[in-house]
Every structure is written in structure tokens, then in C-alpha cells.
Amino acid sequence: MQLFLMRHGEASFDALSDRERVLTDQGRYQTRQMANWLTSHVTTFDLVLISPYLRVQQSWQEVSTHFPEPRKLMVLDELVPSADPAMCASLIQAYAQQYKADKVLVVSHMPLLGYLVSEMVGGIEPPLFATSAICLLDLHGERASQVWQEAPHTIG
User: Fold this and answer.
1) Which of 33, 37, 77, 109 is the 20 to 30 A CA-CA neighbour of 152?
2) Cα four-point dihedral sign 82, 88, 41, 36
């Protein structure tokens, strides 16, 4: 399975709660830029799992314009910044298995994404994810390897 982990785009801090923060214009632009770049690596997703937070919903809206509709799209309350990475890793793998998904996109937050990488790829420190950054993990059974990680400032 190829697991694409993406952080939401840059978000404004002008909101009543963390859940309600919206993407900035720069956040929308960089998310579109990364989605366009991603089309050279994957043509479709079998399964897309996203956080319920508004900035992630908006990031997915930008990404979704570059890809056909996935076989399955799910909003998971577990994919929030403070979520347990071991539980989320198991949940992602269980849904991928249930839906027979070979190409999975998860759009979520820091620090969860960094901890997910560390949880799934043994022996590495949690990487930082810039806003709109994407990491590809290749999963074979219980083993995973990090293939690449890119951000708007690295794809230039």
C-alpha cells in the first residue's frame, strides 16, 4: 500500500476555536501547488481519510480538484492534532484493508503526522511537516519505509 500523508495548508489564527480555523489565500495556493505536483506521482486514490477540522476540509477541497473522486472518502474524528498515533496507524491500516485500498491519502495535522511516520517506520524520529507538505510511505504488511517527503518550498 502507498500511504500519502498530507498536512493541511496554512491556516489563519482568527477563529473562535482551533477546529474552525480557515485556510489563508497562501494556504489554498500552496495546497493547490502540492496537489498539482502530486499528480505526477499518483493518478487516483482508493481511500481518502481526513480530519473534521475546517482547514483540513478546505485543503481536501483544493486537492480533490486534481484527482478523480476516490472510491471511499471518510472524515475521521480521530485524525486531530492530539490523536494517539498508534491508534491512528492501526485505524488507517484497518480501513485500507477493509476497502482493499492500495493508494491511501490522509490529510491531517501536526504533530500527529510526524508521530504517524515515526510509528509506522521503525527507528526514525518524527519528521516535521511544513504546511501543505506530503510524505509517501510504502507499507508492506507490518513494515513501512519512507519514500519521500516534499513541501511547497522543496518542489520549486
Assistant:
1) 77
2) negative
